[in-house]
Amino acid sequence: MLIHVAALPHISRALLLLSLCLLSIQTASKELHFVTVEHAPHSFEKDEKIVGSVTQLLREIFETMGHQLKISSVPAKRALLMVESGHVDGIYPYTYNEARSNAAYFSNPISVIDTVFFKRKSSDISWETLFDLHPYHIGSNAGYHYPSTFITAERERLLTITPLFSQNPTLDNLKKLKSERIDLFICNRLVCQFYLDQYAPMFQSIDYIPKEVGANKTFHVGFTRKRAGASELRDQFNVALDDAITSGLLEEAYMQYGVKEEVNRLGSQGAKDRVIQ
């Protein structure tokens, strides 16, 4: 094949443009490192792999965005520090508060948290105000962002609360409840119900009080503010999240782990009337 010498500059320019395009694609399609905590059914370890409803959803969403996810599971305190310092691209599942918004950009809601008290079936415990629970010993997960009413009661020492630090505090607190080392355990209803089902019949003596503690909260994906382009990545994720809700991808991913969410409380629709930055 003969190429006219005069055409060489044009060919070189075309090759240069092609190279730049390929470089741009490679740059955009980078691996993202996210950190999570043991929080079944959203995220947990099984057969030495990190799985769960939200984990599955994020892998599929980021794949459609051209990214691969590297996910590490660590205790909550370490996870928060990794996001604040910018050692990772993001974190999930993540609850919103003003202090955390200084460290990360928050996605629209990916799950709704209905917080209740779990108890032994043999215990006749009910409550109207939190102070009604003053005589009881309550277990909680250290570092977890509970409803403000509960946090206030804890700060003012209106309740007897023992926060638990461990790799899997939810499971360990349920074991403490079963063995009568605590009287109540404050927990996301969906999360604790998952453990009760997964470990059946171990926790058959446990149920919950059907009264929510404070207003419901939501889980999000947090994108560290220490990384360039994090705000844009969050915005792209929000668009992809809405697409996943509309297409049924989210429902399909969640149902693999027995999770049923009211999708009208998620994504951009669920973000209405909530402060999210």
Describe the structure in brief:
This protein is 38% helix and 23% strand.
Model description:
- This protein is an alpha/beta fold.
- It folds into two domains: 31-112 and 217-270, Periplasmic binding protein-like II (D-Maltodextrin-Binding Protein, domain 2, 3-Layer(aba) Sandwich); 115-209, D-Maltodextrin-Binding Protein, domain 2 (3-Layer(aba) Sandwich), CATH 3.40.190.
- The chain is built from ten helices and 13 strands.
- The chain has helices spanning 8-28, 53-64, 76-85, 98-101, 148-155, 169-178, 189-198, 230-247, 249-255, 267-270, and strands at 31-36, 44-46, 49-51, 68-73, 90-95, 104-106, 111-113, 115-120, 137-141, 160-164, 184-188, 206-209, 217-224.
- Strands 1, 4, 5, 6, 7 and 13 form a six-stranded mixed beta sheet that branches. A five-stranded mixed beta sheet has the order 10-9-11-8-12, covered by helices on one side.
- Helix 2 (53-64) crosses helix 8 and helix 2 (53-64) packs antiparallel against helix 9 (249-255).
- The longest helix is centred in the first third of the chain and has 21 residues, at 8-28.
- Residues 1-27 have low confidence and may be disordered.
